[in-house]
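Hello again,

I reread your note about wanting to compare the complex against the isolated chains. To keep things tidy I'm splitting this into two emails, and this first one only covers the full assembly. Below are the input lines as submitted, including protein chains and any nucleic acid or small-molecule components. They are followed by the predicted structure of everything together. The single-chain runs will come separately.
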Amino acid sequence: MNRPVDHTLQDPPKLPFEPLIQKNAVITEARWVRVSLTAAALIFLLGFLLMPLIAVFVEALRNGIGAYFEAIVEDDAMAAIRLTLTVSLIAVPLNLVFGVIAAWAITKHSFRFKQLLITLIDLPFSVSPVVSGLIYVLIFGAQGWAGPWMSEHEFKVLFAVPGIVLATTFVTFPFIARELIPLMQAQGTDDEQAALSLGANGWQVFWRVTLPNIRWGLLYGVLLCNARAMGEFGAVSVVSGHIRGLTNTMPLHVEILYNEYNFSAAFAVASLLAMLALLTLGLKSLLEWRHGNELAATRRH
Amino acid sequence: MLKKFLATSLLAIVPTLSHAASVTLLNVSYDPTRELYKAVNAAFAADWKAKTGDSVTIKQSHGGSGKQARAVIDGLEADVVTLALAADIDAIAEKAKLLPLDWEKRLAHNSAPYTSTIVFLVRKGNPKQIKDWNDLIKPGVAVVTPNPKTSGGARWNHLAAYAYALKANNGDAAKAKAYLAALYKNVPVLDTGARGATTTFVQRGIGDVLIAWENEAFLSIDEFGKDKFEIVAPSLSVLAEPSVAVVDKVADKHGNRKVADAYLSFLYTPAAQDIIGKNYYRPVDPAVAARYASVFPKIELKTIADFGGWAKVQAEHFAEGGLFDQIYGG
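Full-complex prediction:
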């Protein structure tokens, strides 16, 4: 009887005794610990994320579907939606260009003060949005540095669309660059060097090699950037002037409606923002699922 | 060059498009006047159209009175300002020089087409038995009032409380200050504007008593029902005079001077005064005021002159390092 020995079933001969690893191994936890921990996490998610989301839609539809659409097609609401779309359509492409340039410069080249540049890119993340708004008041306000000159030349920045675009661009600046830098760092410069050695010029390298390599990461960054651009409240609130039908973005309009006891209308407009969030989330998951490998370096969100 | 070309071509086109002009005014106002000016603006637009044939659209911006004044100083192009108190318009006149310093004399009743006062809003049945100002400093009473730095209503609240404390302590300023310190100790949250404070109290259910504009208190009862809240009139309060003014430089720049002047004068007409009464502001027109007299509680009211005027009050109470900073900051 020479049964073949199944080695996989045997302990390795000289496995050193490692009490710490045994104790910490997740698999050795009692079943009830695992179940209750998972349940706690799920309940937390349900309570803090899902419930408010459902509440938004329930409140929005409280007075019926007719009132819901009425609140959305109302003049000031439409103006707010148009303004929010306009601002995002300007701010996101700007950040797309700046973000790619910054990431390209940081990851494909070496120069002095590189670390300083990375820190600067992160600045909008670490500064409170209110401060981001106030810096534009200080610069472009009538009492600010550039204010008197601008009012002489009939330029309106503060309390007008340009100011809102500036504040939004500032706040959303890091999203694309931050998404691309780790990805491009992980990819290194081998592909580019190969292309250069085969005689490609700078533009060709960028369009044919670098950009295709980062396209999914870029799309991912654009999504996040757009979501924030449309949802930004603090910085925009400072520079907007809150003129109904002129300088109110969607989040500001929600606040106004809420303050006017117009709760179902407030939640109706809020539900549009919530749907935007869900759409962003869906697209983001799709990207992670389909192009996970190409996002690998940045899958930390 | 291009700008000039565009401007001249626009000028050439515009008159052929319409003979009746269409103007847009921006009214920068304080927090609780949202409903009032919605009604007033519609009435004025109809009136102006009937008189001149021109259409006028009035855009509104609302927020804490101090914050709104700050925005106008920083360049928010208001044709008219309708703020909670004269001091905020004074600030615009002083800091940005957009209107003359004596603006208050340009319209009747110190440029205040309506007045109001400060009352308490409590939950139904008045569970904490709040009757007067001295009940607000009792331990365990949570008081909601906005931040006097940004809100005009909050400054009136502060002054009404101070007036009471002075009277109760026979004019002893130190004791009055101690009263205010005890009062602010009972305030769990300072919102930036009166409407924010109202939603904190009414909608979020925070606090036992809201120190509020009379109109704001009535409106909350209208919105949420008599079965939820009641108004308590304290023994002493202030005569709040929310002031209005044309912002000369802005209105002139926009070519809106005439319509802006007409808009503010309209506020004094019986039609507008009636809208004012309906929205629970106290009309200044005696005939209209008589019609609404039964609505408002009778309270002994101190005026801003009793405190020595806004310039003095602003410096003593609300300026950097003033009384409010001393008790709330320290």
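For quick reference: The mean pLDDT of chain A is 87.

B.
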